[in-house]
Amino acid sequence: MNSNVEPAKGAVCSKARLFDEEYLLDPYPLYQEFRDAGPVIWLEAYGLYMLPRYVETRRALEDWESFSSAGGVTMNDIMNEKLSGGLLCSDPPRHDSLRKVIERPVLPRALSQLRERVASEAKGLIERLCRQKKFDAATELAHHLPITIVSDLVGLPEEGRERMLVWAPANFDCFGPINARTNAAFPVVGEMVEYAFSQCVPGKLKPDGWAQMIWEAAHRGEVSLEDAPFMMNDYMGPSLDTTIFATTWLIWLFANNPEQWRKLRENPAMIPAAINEAVRIESPIQNFSRHVARDVEIGGVILPKGSRVIVSYGSANRDERKWGNPTEFDIMREDSNEHLGFGHGEHNCVGKNLARLEMRALLTELIPRVERFELHEAKPAINNVLHGLKTCRVTVH
Amino acid sequence: MPRVTYRLPDGRDCEVELSNGQSLMEGAIRNGIGAILGECGGSAMCATCHVYIEGGPVGALPSMCDDEDAMLEEAAAERLGNSRLSCQIRMNAALDGIVVRVPEEM
Ligand code: HEM
Ligand code: FES
Prior knowledge:
Chain A is of the alpha+beta class. Chain A has 18 helices and eleven strands.
């Protein structure tokens, strides 16, 4: 990366090492410093710009011609090279054709067919956990739907499913700038790619699963046969930790804000607002990047063509310029649907409605059974771009 | 304050006062009407706030934007000529008395 170049005029220089462990654990004070310092930050340590505020982040996500994904959305050249041309790292028109195939099974009408199945699975799980009373929400509660139902719908070969929980976060670690964490994760991601190419092939996939549907689309010519293996991980890769973390944050947030849980119990129709608010305030994906494809003015700074800029969903979602009391978890907040935690623009999350459906199902079963959550212990999961808890032990009363 | 009637799948009619600027989706949810899911929170991205306009001052409805039109194609219940996304209709005095039917499937 061009770490020795002079930053653009007007960008605020910072020596902060956002991807060091102490900041990954708690990035929020640093984000706040950045937001106060200006709309465009130059992170000297990485040779990257960053947009810490809401307005500029949203604008960048809407302007793919200037802020390109085809030039990579991770923060290092090796990973950008590996992902190049995939759904996440492409621009229109290529992106449109890949997206059309990937989104098919998770569009609203298709999802509505799943609602009952997910609801009954959630009921069984929550009944069991409520009898047990004390459990780890990060694993026992949050893993179940993504790992049983979603895995089954995607239909990847059995032997890879367990490994997915190791592969998927490693994949996200590789989105960071090169550091020890990124380097340690590369070989693990290699395994995932190997699995996609050798195991995720017709004959080994579940015949009516979503992964198999990609091959069928390729045979119809909607995408090329060479693209299909690269698309095998587009469902599992981004759906596990993101949904698991969001679910865990919901429980953690309600444990810490019992009056919010009371409000939700009084009016369960507010479930979507509660989910949006949790995704806003804790943003399971904190930071991706965009490649500056042409000189572009943003926040009064001209970013030069060829540079790279971090789009910070996590910081934008706590921007005091956009949100009143941004650090407060408030399910009654009126504009919580305007958060950027599911992205925005061309690449907005394909699976957002699936994730919401899963979380709704769990909350729906918890509401009548749980008066309050007692939190015993929470431990963070550390990742270059994800933000979540690996342990969240609670007792339900 | 202007009023809206939600005709629910179980046959009940629910008449509610909304504040100006509140969407018909928010109005339902804040008043505990769970038959409208409103999963995305009002961003025209989920089609789970689909309603049929049944009566009242239909001439005062805002016109449909492209996002709403596209998302209605994805609605679980059949799209009809009077289909709208309730999150895209903001209440105002002229809409007082509007009647919407909530489909069973969302
Ligand atoms: C709470 C859970 C989730 C969160 C917070 C989340 C977050 C995000 C974000 C921020 C992006 C935007 C990336 C960008 O701007 O470049 C994204 C894209 C994406 N998400 Fe999710 N996601 C979640 C769940 C899921 C699920 C369940 C799936 C499974 C289908 C999924 C699949 C994808 C895919 C395939 C993309 C790439 C879309 C594209 O490039 O067009 N996500 N997600
Ligand atoms: S609430 Fe999602 S489309 Fe209206």
